[in-house]
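Encode chain A's predicted structure.
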Amino acid sequence: MEKNSLKFLKGLLDQAGPSGYEEQTSAVWRNYVQGFADKVHGDFHGNSYGILNEKGKTSIFMSGHIDEIGFVISGITEKGFLKIAPVGGIDLHVVVGQRVNVNTKKGEVYGVIGRKPIHLLTPEERKKVSTANEIWVDIGAKDKKDAEKIVEIGDAITIDVGFKKLRGSLYVARGFDDRIGAFTVAEALRILSENKDKLRHKVTAVASVQEEIGLRGAITSVYNVNPQIGFAVDVTFSSDVPGIKPEIIGEVKLGGGPVIARGPNINPKLFALIKKVAKENKIPIQIVAAPRGTGTDANAIQLSRGGVATALISIPNRYMHTPVEVVSLKDAENVALLIAKTIMKIKNKDDFIL
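Encoded structure for chain A:
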């Protein structure tokens, strides 16, 4: 991966951005895309747009959501402990004992997620997963009044972990779901900008917001852009770890290449073109069945206005919705290249009418 691209990805992952609190991460995305897009802007919802060739004959849309799961402060006890509520689908198995950052107007406040020690749990309590009501954040405050000096109700909280290399192309981070998708659509736009003289169509890359609480940013951004063709980029479950059955979710492995969804959420002609382009460019791909509307931006894209010819291309991800998500950056590079190459092959929007 190019040094500048890697620096951009790290910058995205270093920021906190649960659904509804994406401003810092979106600023990093817009600053990077400003370097090669013809136009960059935001909207009232918080979505970020990078546009190439605005007067192109067909409008093509690609999005990766930039929000992550997290918590918000829902209350402060008299003793100064912070009660919290989940933002998105958090696995409460893995949050107890984690170090966290409370993201306030004045900066980050350090804290830890606490609960009763195992010694004091009853045998029945030990068998159960803690609920959000049974855990708290300790910021070292003396009491409620002291805590209120530095935090407020509604402040966002994220797990305090960083971006690290494992081996080869594998990296671990909090928030690969789906910062890696927002990163990838930006990289696809960068690749297209290098061939702008041959680009026939208008292309809009979007870092969408609030996907984790209902595809909300995709709904508003695709309505704004009104494209005829759309690509969603998200992460998907890898089946190359213990306990996951490939015969149920599909054969998906890290480093195996982009994962192409096939099913009713996907335009079959666009799917066929992607598959053809991958073969022509010797890009490895993995195919999975999607028997209904997907829980990704692709669902919102396909159903916008009068309908959009839609594809879903995913990046394999281990340990999704935990603080230790693992992906292969080679897969992300190949997704960006595959989308860019496919867009360059598109001739006419009418080719995708069924």
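Residues 270 and 352 are 7 Å apart (CA to CA).
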